[in-house]
Write a structure and sequence with these properties.
- The chain contains 12 helices and 8 strands.
- By secondary structure, the chain is an alpha/beta fold.
- The protein folds into 2 domains: 215 residues, 3-Layer(aba) Sandwich (Rossmann fold), CATH 3.40.50.1820; 77 residues, no CATH class.
- The two termini are 28 Å apart.
């Protein structure tokens, strides 16, 4: 059975998307809610989902505007962090009802999960383990230079508007432009640096898929949300298990820790041995396994 065989339709609040459901082989195993990050999809995180499946049932839903799911704009709403948090709360209430869950949230997915727990504190008691995988809580966690920060902020602001977003989708994101220009960008160089020629070509094909399945205005709006983020104004009364990567090109791990201490009642760090913020976008289960340190696996096994 393939990953595609385990993808089910998702219809919530008038928005249609998908969710990956890997059922547990044991009736007493845990329920793991896996949340992907920015510039992602179910297929992007499939290897990580398969790796986590050994610890219980894994469910990974789309976010509105990501992975091909309808965006909030379809129902007259904006993809604000608060709206994404409310969507996630609705999904948890509908999907899990009286069940306890383990949340494993990647990068931006952790940002949404944190805001959800802050806005819906009654859901805190449903979460037995909260895992941040290279997640963050505040805009100051980024390691970008001031120049790069302003560039990203300005670009996102322009293309979050309707007409510029259409231009971006059908001109900038055309396959020929992406193949010609994207591999030369700062982020792509980090992603492709350790890949063979064959792997790089496969990764480029998948990059095109990701850029096309993530709705442009949602992508840009959520980029602004990340670059202006402050999730430190309200505490979440539970510990967080945080996976850090020393070679993370996006975040300062020391500052991330400081902010997580502000938000959560306890902070437990697990250091992953990776050469990038995340596994390659074409990473399978084996290649993704390095993102889950043994210390975290011990927690998932016994909790």
């Amino acid at each position: 059975m393939t990953i595609q065989d385990n993808i089910q339709p998702l219809n919530i609040n008038g928005l249609k998307g998908r969710m990956l459901v890997l059922p547990s082989k044991k009736t007493d195993n845990k329920d793991i809610l896996l949340l992907y990050g920015h510039h992602a999809s179910i297929e992007r995180m499939a290897g990580i989902a398969e790796d986590l499946h050994q610890y219980g049932a894994v469910t990974m839903p789309d976010f509105p505007g990501f992975g091909g799911m309808d965006s909030f704009y379809k129902i007259g709403m904006k993809p604000t962090l608060d709206n994404l948090a409310d969507y996630l709360a609705s999904f948890i209430k509908l999907r899990y009802k009286n069940k306890k869950i383990t949340i494993v949230a990647m990068s931006f997915g952790f940002v949404v999960a944190t805001r959800m727990l802050q806005k819906h504190p009654k859901l805190v008691s449903k979460v037995d383990v909260l895992v941040s995988v290279v997640g963050f809580c505040h805009r100051d966690d980024f390691v970008f230079s001031r120049k790069r920060y302003l560039f990203y902020r300005s670009l996102a602001s322009v293309f979050s508007r309707k007409l510029p977003a259409l231009f971006f989708r059908y001109v900038v994101l055309s396959p020929i432009v992406l193949r010609t220009a994207y591999s030369k960008t700062h982020n792509a160089k980090n992603k492709f640096k350790n890949l063979t020629k064959e792997e790089a070509n496969k990764a480029m094909n998948f990059e095109i898929h990701l850029w096309h399945c993530n709705e442009v205005r949602t992508y840009m709006d959520t980029t602004i949300s990340m670059l202006t983020l402050d999730n430190c104004s309200k505490q979440v009364k539970m510990p967080v298990h945080h996976v850090s990567v020393n070679a993370d090109q996006y975040f300062n791990n020391q500052i991330v820790e400081q902010h997580m201490h502000v938000v959560f009642s306890d902070f437990i760090e697990h250091k992953a041995v990776m050469d990038n913020h995340a596994p390659s976008i074409i990473a399978n289960k084996e290649a993704s396994s390095g993102l889950m340190p043994q210390s975290l696996r011990n927690v998932l096994s016994r909790s």
